[in-house]
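Subject: complex prediction, re-run

Hi both,

The earlier run crashed halfway through, so I resubmitted it with identical inputs.
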Amino acid sequence: MPSVAVVGAAGFAGALCAAIVERHPSLDLVAVTARSDAGLRLDQLYPRHRVSLELEAFDADRVAERAEAALVAYPHGAAAPVVAQLRERGLKVVDLSADFRLERVRYEAAYGPHAAPALLGASVYGLPEIGHREAVRGADLVAGPGCYPTAALLALWPLREVAADAVVDAKSGVSGAGREATGTTHFVSVAENVNAYKVEGHRHRAELDQELAGRGFPVTFTPHLLPIDQGLLASCYVTPKHALSAADVRELFLDAYAGEPFVELVESPPGVRDVRETNLCRVCATVEPATGRVLAFAAIDNLWKGAASQAVQDLNLMLGLREEEGLGAVATTGTPAPVRAARTEEVPS
Amino acid sequence: MPSVAVVGAAGFAGALCAAIVERHPSLDLVAVTARSDAGLRLDQLYPRHRVSLELEAFDADRVAERAEAALVAYPHGAAAPVVAQLRERGLKVVDLSADFRLERVRYEAAYGPHAAPALLGASVYGLPEIGHREAVRGADLVAGPGCYPTAALLALWPLREVAADAVVDAKSGVSGAGREATGTTHFVSVAENVNAYKVEGHRHRAELDQELAGRGFPVTFTPHLLPIDQGLLASCYVTPKHALSAADVRELFLDAYAGEPFVELVESPPGVRDVRETNLCRVCATVEPATGRVLAFAAIDNLWKGAASQAVQDLNLMLGLREEEGLGAVATTGTPAPVRAARTEEVPS
Amino acid sequence: MPSVAVVGAAGFAGALCAAIVERHPSLDLVAVTARSDAGLRLDQLYPRHRVSLELEAFDADRVAERAEAALVAYPHGAAAPVVAQLRERGLKVVDLSADFRLERVRYEAAYGPHAAPALLGASVYGLPEIGHREAVRGADLVAGPGCYPTAALLALWPLREVAADAVVDAKSGVSGAGREATGTTHFVSVAENVNAYKVEGHRHRAELDQELAGRGFPVTFTPHLLPIDQGLLASCYVTPKHALSAADVRELFLDAYAGEPFVELVESPPGVRDVRETNLCRVCATVEPATGRVLAFAAIDNLWKGAASQAVQDLNLMLGLREEEGLGAVATTGTPAPVRAARTEEVPS
Amino acid sequence: MPSVAVVGAAGFAGALCAAIVERHPSLDLVAVTARSDAGLRLDQLYPRHRVSLELEAFDADRVAERAEAALVAYPHGAAAPVVAQLRERGLKVVDLSADFRLERVRYEAAYGPHAAPALLGASVYGLPEIGHREAVRGADLVAGPGCYPTAALLALWPLREVAADAVVDAKSGVSGAGREATGTTHFVSVAENVNAYKVEGHRHRAELDQELAGRGFPVTFTPHLLPIDQGLLASCYVTPKHALSAADVRELFLDAYAGEPFVELVESPPGVRDVRETNLCRVCATVEPATGRVLAFAAIDNLWKGAASQAVQDLNLMLGLREEEGLGAVATTGTPAPVRAARTEEVPS
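This time it finished cleanly. Structure:
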């Protein structure tokens, strides 16, 4: 059974990686590391995850002695050197930061100089559903996509050939901002509030641009912060190159996602609550009658499909395991769920 | 001092109308009516509003004996006959429903046959900031705009001549759905959730179309439900006909709203919490560097500027009072507030 | 593999029963019934549970043809006749209502005449941890305890011999009020609010009185409604008959719960979030230095340990399965978890 | 018109003090100071308060040049030296910290050495409703009570002669923890959670003990943190020395609070939402039929009556103004409001 270390397990995404790996029937969690919480048991920080391993200070050799693979959940910039050390010691790595998601020129434009540029070419973008599955299977280093790009790309991918332009209005829960306590994550700032942020350009845009590159349509991307802990909704508004019917759109999405274990096509706009604590992305696409615009909504749990569980999905592929293993609920593809009876009433009218 | 009745004061918007009128220094609240809660004191239903008047069953004659003006907060369809009775008795009326917002053909396409079509021509759309101020001043019947159109129109109005198309992604708190308990307004449906709804066409679109009519640009409009009680944010994405700089855009907004007492131009995206329980609309407009799209965000309190306080703003104008009277906080126009220091930290990255 | 039906699967607790049974490795979910939602698939009402069975109208014969056991999640009063029909047909039953929790005289004092009094004597109170485990094992009919009594009894049980009196201040999330949309469960009533209710006497008190009967100490019980969806905290204040040290109290709790798979003793007051979506009850007991009072806090998920998962725990015992089977996280007994590092900061001071 | 400075206006309570003073018809806000945010305008930190004064670094002389009185909202310990400087310069002061609430021996037991012990004897405890009104009127230095003691004392005061013991289970919103971002105030720690804290002894207990001193009954006090921003509920359970009827209890509360402008006696348990953003304390007291215990619930807004608006109430008295001036809603005493129709439905049952 492959042995796995989680490096950076004291943050929200890393801790969840540890919890998922520990319950995974075909993976063995052998080490969890932390930068400032070493010495604590993980369940002291995160009682719900119920992982009782003690957090260690990171030491590449000690990790490599025990683990064949690692999930790295460090902040952007801090991840690259650690990943390099682990790769040198032969571990397969899924990195959850932005450090290996982008081509070098895109990375440096968004984040500045890269700490391990030699590895950039070897990395695969870990969103299997948009054409990267085979590359992930063969990879030794996979970059887990950002939470926003995961949802936005899953909404836009089936439309990539027909889109003239796209607006992505994305909304995330607070856990996406990480464990650090700041004015922004203070309960009193968030409760009963919603606002856009980083309108001058969020760095996740670079991922959208890269993955849709060559498709030749401009994408507007604006993130918003919501008073929820977990959940992310990408509401996408696409002007088609030529008129499309709702049936055309449905066809595009069925073609793109038939058989996908973690994409669930539904007939009414998904709520993030419906995918909470799953690796699922729930997608609804339709055409606005009044304008002919294509509307596509993708809901994920930002910590799961947007981070930790998607990293395990990638790791499953890299290790030759079944893609769905250890990840719980799986989509019922090909059978879009009908409208939810509990949500048909009137809303702000 | 003008005497005012609130008809339909047991709902969220009507109750708030009563509270604002009661504290208004130049208005006299003389009656509150309700359809099914008659006999209760208003503060039994809404302790926070602290209006101790008893709710009466509606009787047009009894209302007309005491009141010169009325705010009517009935559901769509139910309002028109009541408004007609009050107008026959000479009362000035602000109606908060959709019944008098639209030209007849637009109304009937969205809502079906109209109960008092003769009055439609006499009604003025009560959004003073978009060119209706003088008409409201002279009107006997004003239609309070919908909550979504209020925010969306205030964001789009300065761009009306330069827009090639627009996407409005709007997000509302639950109070917009009204006091009725439904599956949609159940706490458990809303908490930790967000979803789009009525993607096939919300009836508020007709207001946007009417008020922007002749401008010749298509508007996509999609409402979302948020886990907050009060607050509404319209995030608007406008493709300009020709390239605009951020300075151009700022100029357009300053021109449109200089001196407006209830529109506050700010330099970073507004949060709905910043305007909670005020008649203010806080607006931020900028240009997305990567695409040249104009982004305009408008935040209101859906029950205040989106309903009750805006109705009192209209009533002030109709009665020759100062527009700001009894409405609390007023914008500091011409001096866009700088970035809020408390909100500069990192968010979902 | 035992076949199980869930009767009343359209409510919050019933739907969760169905989800837990469906994922249970040693139970086979064969039918789900509903009173007013028959014909819908369960996942149309509850997408998160991902149970695709179709809800049927209840028919005792049709259920008995397929199922050896049933979980009944009907409202109080409505449950008894249905349980009687299922028992007549030989099914083992766990009933989640109050109908079989109480001795007849207590039941009728709190709820009125009983519809199936003959069955009352055959029923076992399904809280294994307070001395009922063996009785549950041998039972054909088990009454799932109320959510409030579950937490309160687990906090008070170890103190039953030493208590002179007790105050239970209990706080529950909104899901405890059920799926019905009412003024009380409206998001706008609950958000940013907290209040006590039923101070004149909640019917759950009868369970506390019965289970602590003969102990001769009076219990004050007051429920409160919180703005959370799931979670219940019982804060218990016990005057001891004679002075107890913190070590004495810890001893009592260790004695009572050593080896219990679902009771987790911790050293700092538990948060309901720590047990969310688990069958665990997290308990902390200590002595207030200033007064010598014993403080005992018990946190559960009201829909899990307070209803659905506890019903499956009972069913496991009744069917001779391992008590923990299909119920996920299990307590690490005997090793009270230390203080959570993430919660040591200052709070309202 | 008296001129007022707010010292420490960058925190939650200080900023609200500034907002209330600025809108006060008989007070003139002349300066606001801050320790680390000097140079910012207050409305950059707190847009909702709409106070556009610039925050200055504190300088006692510069404050004294302009202000006759000051509200000081510094943390415990930091307040005393600042208050001493202002008193030396002749300003009347209301201090919101704990520094002047307690007799010296109690203070030093709870907080350690005091920085300005000479002033302790001159300070008056600023809860006018429990017998301190005349002393506050004549005082030059008033200590604003803690948020928890404000609610608890208002619930317990009428029972002081009849109580044998008392349990106070108190629940506060997150704003009580202040503006500092910590693990405890992180949205993700608070959402969907509730927990007790400081069970070993919260320092607010010393205030309870002092104000109820000589009454000879022990008080258990346990604070809890709730997922709301503003609001505090004290649920008090009092064993009476001798049997009391509900009518007896009502009489005690009417005697204690008849004519009080900010205490509102109600007949059903108050919700904190009912007093949000007011200086009101809403109190309900009754007798539990099953045990004879007296239950008393007091709801306040922790930032208003629990801090900022109560400080202005004290300042009004000290300056010879009408106690209610500038403080908005006032209680309708002598007429307990009946049960709220909107809250009669079933709740967790």
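The mean pLDDT of chain D is 93.

- K.
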